[in-house]
């Protein structure tokens, strides 16, 4: 099944402009850089598939600093990876909603990509002199079982923690 | 015109016109801040509802790197988004405004060139402005950016209403003067 | 206003917290990294507003919402009314 270029471009533009203040340009097929961060989001519904992003390492730092409104040198590796996972999460949902607006899908949690590098059909240079972002959407054949989609259901009631303070982080 | 470090707060009863590459701050009973013929330029408007203090910035280009002096300063910081927009909240705070009370909007950024794919100056101005406001921690409540007609913008300092006029079309309200605040005792 | 943010992603918690602060509301923001911690915190602070992710470890957002609805401790009557216009004078 072909992924419509206009739909993927519009989805990526919406996400990158709204959350990261970047304007991508569609370029077409490209081989990602070796030093890039890859994340996948599985989806299931009328069709089953895997939405995979690879982002060049240099671009990930800049994206994180824009997202968190901090200097580019400050984000740590954990924050950078978390930012790219959120990008994949939101971009997948935005694209699927735009591509098949009348269908319902379930989405898995973003997971690191472990497959070997291969050519991606859609690439988005962000600025003429910036490292690139690469995008691929796979449609897995039926019968191939994806990784666990959801965390196991929680069982049992929760009672107040009697530790003299709240159990969460006070921001 | 080089920017002064402390903005002149206009307080006499008159309407103030803001030109290209300029930024003016005024407080009620000055009636309004206005700018005309925006073209690809963008007008950024901010208003403190409690003080009825407003500011209008008419910015032309996204990046001041082309206009740096030997000391590194931009010739006119209000011509450029990267130097002009960060000045806006600073100048307002000098006038006593509070970030939490600011209502902001932007308009303009029309594509005035026939070869629209080549320039898109309006779009190139819009993204840096949104980014600058995000970094400054200020919401842009409303925007009307794009198209291919020149805009004019008027901020009524008494009500906070922003009027937008495109080309020769009748004006429309960009930022309504009636804004929402939270009831007493509800956390605000 | 007391706000509870529940998300397993620390960057999303920070992003949402910053957005809330930009609204100008006087907020006290608490965070939790999963539904279980969110429920424990909610029982402790009784928030005015909860913003939660759905797909999380150790209890999803949907399960958190169900548990909160079922809790008599967290039910405090009808929601508050927020909107009022300022007087221009």
CATH topology of chain B: 60s Ribosomal Protein L30, Chain: A
Helical/strand content category of chain C: alpha/beta
Principal-axes geometry of chain C comes out as: globular
Helix content of chain C: 25-40%
Largest sheet of chain B: 6 strands, mixed
Which spans of chain C have pLDDT < 50 for at least 5 consecutive residues? Answer: 78-89
CATH superfamily of chain C: Response regulator
Written description of the protein model:
Chain A is an alpha+beta fold and 171 residues long. Chain A is 30% helix and 20% strand. In chain A, strands 1, 2, 3, 4, 5 and 6 form a six-stranded antiparallel sheet that branches. In chain A, helix 1 crosses helix 3 (77-99) and helix 2 (57-68) packs across helix 3. The model of chain A is unreliable at 161-171 (pLDDT under 50). Chain B is an alpha/beta fold and 188 residues long. Chain B has one domain: 2-Layer Sandwich (60s Ribosomal Protein L30, Chain: A), CATH 3.30.1330. Helix content of chain B is 15%, strand content 30%. Chain B has helices spanning 81-84, 87-94, 121-136, and strands at residues 9-10, 15-17, 22-27, 32-35, 42-48, 53-59, 102-108, 142-145, 151-156, 162-166, 172-175, 181-182. In chain B, the strands form two sheets. A six-stranded mixed sheet of chain B has the order 1-3-6-5-7-8. A five-stranded mixed sheet of chain B has the order 2-4-9-10-11, with no helix packed on it. Chain C has 89 residues and is α/β, with parallel strands linked by helices. Chain C has a three-stranded parallel sheet, sandwiched between helices. In chain C, strand 1, helix 1 and strand 2 form a beta-alpha-beta unit. The two termini of chain C are 27 Å apart. In chain C, 40% of the residues are buried. Chains in contact: A-B, A-C, B-C. The A-B interface holds A 17, 21-23, 66, 69 and B 123, 127-128, 130-131, 134-135, 137.
Report a brief summary of the structure.
The complex is a heterotrimer of chains A (171), B (188) and C (89). Helices cover 30% and strands 20% of the residues of chain A.
Features:
heterotrimer, A: 171 residues, alpha+beta, Chemotaxis protein chec, six-stranded antiparallel sheet, 3 helices, 7 strands, 20% strand, globular, disordered C terminus, C: 89 residues, alpha/beta, Rossmann fold, three-stranded parallel sheet, 4 strands
């Amino acid at each position: 099944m072909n992924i419509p270029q206009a739909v993927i471009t519009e989805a990526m533009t919406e996400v990158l402009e709204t959350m990261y203040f970047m304007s991508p340009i569609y370029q077409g097929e490209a081989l990602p850089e070796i030093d890039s961060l890859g994340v996948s989001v599985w989806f299931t519904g009328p069709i089953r598939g895997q939405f995979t992003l690879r982002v060049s390492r240099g671009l990930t730092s800049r994206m994180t600093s824009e997202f968190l409104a901090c200097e580019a040198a400050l984000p740590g590796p954990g924050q950078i990876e978390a930012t790219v996972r959120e990008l994949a999460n939101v971009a997948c949902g935005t694209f699927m909603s735009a591509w098949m607006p009348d269908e319902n899908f379930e989405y898995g949690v973003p997971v690191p990509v472990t497959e070997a590098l291969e050519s991606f059909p859609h690439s988005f240079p962000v600025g003429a002199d910036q490292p690139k972002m690469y995008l691929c959407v796979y449609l897995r054949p039926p019968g191939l079982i994806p990784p666990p989609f959801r965390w196991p259901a929680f069982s049992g009631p929760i009672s107040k923690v009697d530790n003299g303070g709240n159990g969460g982080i006070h921001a | 015109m080089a920017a002064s470090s402390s903005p002149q707060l206009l307080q006499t009863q008159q309407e103030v016109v803001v030109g290209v590459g300029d930024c003016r701050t005024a407080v009620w009973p000055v009636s309004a801040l206005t700018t005309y013929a925006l073209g690809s330029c963008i007008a950024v408007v901010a208003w403190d509802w409690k003080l009825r203090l407003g500011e209008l910035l008419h910015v032309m280009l996204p990046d001041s790197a082309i206009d740096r002096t030997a000391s590194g300063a931009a010739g006119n910081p209000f011509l450029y988004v990267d130097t002009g927009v960060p000045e806006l909240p600073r100048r307002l705070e000098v006038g006593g405004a509070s970030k939490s009370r600011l209502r902001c909007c932007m308009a303009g950024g029309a594509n005035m060139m026939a070869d629209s794919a080549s320039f898109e100056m309006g779009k190139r101005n819009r993204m840096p402005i949104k980014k600058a406001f995000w970094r400054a921690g200020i919401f842009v409540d409303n925007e009307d950016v794009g198209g291919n007609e020149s805009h004019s913008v008027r901020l009524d300092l008494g009500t906070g209403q922003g009027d937008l006029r495109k080309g020769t079309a009748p004006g429309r309200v960009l930022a309504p003067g009636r804004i929402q605040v939270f009831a007493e005792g509800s956390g605000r | 206003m007391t706000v509870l943010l529940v998300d397993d992603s620390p960057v999303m918690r920070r992003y949402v917290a910053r957005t809330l602060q930009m609204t100008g509301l006087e907020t006290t923001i608490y965070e939790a990294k999963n539904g279980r911690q969110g429920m424990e915190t909610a029982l402790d602070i009784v928030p005015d507003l909860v913003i939660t992710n759905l797909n999380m470890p150790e209890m999803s957002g949907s399960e958190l919402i169900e548990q909160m609805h079922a809790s008599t401790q967290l039910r405090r009557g009808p929601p508050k009314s927020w909107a009022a216009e300022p007087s221009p004078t």
